[in-house]
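>> received
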Amino acid sequence: MTFGLDQVQVRFGGRTVLNAVSLPARPSEITVVVGGDGAGKTTCLRTLVGLVDPDDGEVRRPAKERIGYVPATSGLYEDLAVEENLAFSAHAYGIPRAEYQQRTEELLARIGLTATRQRLGSELSGGMKRKLAVGLALLHVPELVVLDEPTTGVDPVSRVELWRLISSAAIEGAAVVVATTYVNEASRATSVVLLESGRAIAAGSPEEILASVPGTLGRKRGGSQPTERSWRRGSEWRVWAPSGGLPPGVESSAPDFEDAVVVASLADEFAGSPR
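>> returned
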């Protein structure tokens, strides 16, 4: 079964937080929701798992016991040991003791925490906490896995290990939805939804989003900002010309996925402007 959001609207008081947002969550696929602070990512995910009721639109999800959810906070009990966190989660999901013991050993090995099973959650590093939190969400083999910024604030090695866990959940058949502020992580997805101010300004596979970049992209090394539709990447300026004509001194360049995301944001910002 395909889960997800279809034209969902969420209002808090008089403020619209999600405006006609659609988001697919298909078995064996990873959907990544990308956006900056305040874009609506957390509300999107909380609506998907049933913690926020939509004002309009449709939400499709499995029964709550078939969902694995990790909020932006770690989602674990820091005053309990690693093994106790796993036992508590297993009890909450009604996993039989024999099955729990087997899954625990396998999971601890997968997340690299076998040697820390007696350590308190508060004594774990940031990367270890996030890996344990994702492990807790996967312990009951859910149909839908929803992770809110699981790699934020962790070291590069832990980010790689977390994505290995996330990918394995999809390989094993779960529908996986991940929110992130890291554009490069979106290129790992089957589907991407780019949120800005509660609206989806681009959606599709990474290849589709890249192929749909309008206008012309250019690059210019050093100097001052060439146009208002330009941005820094390393030592270069990237320049987007929606009408196709690049300014003098700017050479044409093929966009990558990070460029595509920035252009989508600029196109939304300058919508209706002729230049």
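>> The chain has a mean pLDDT of 91.
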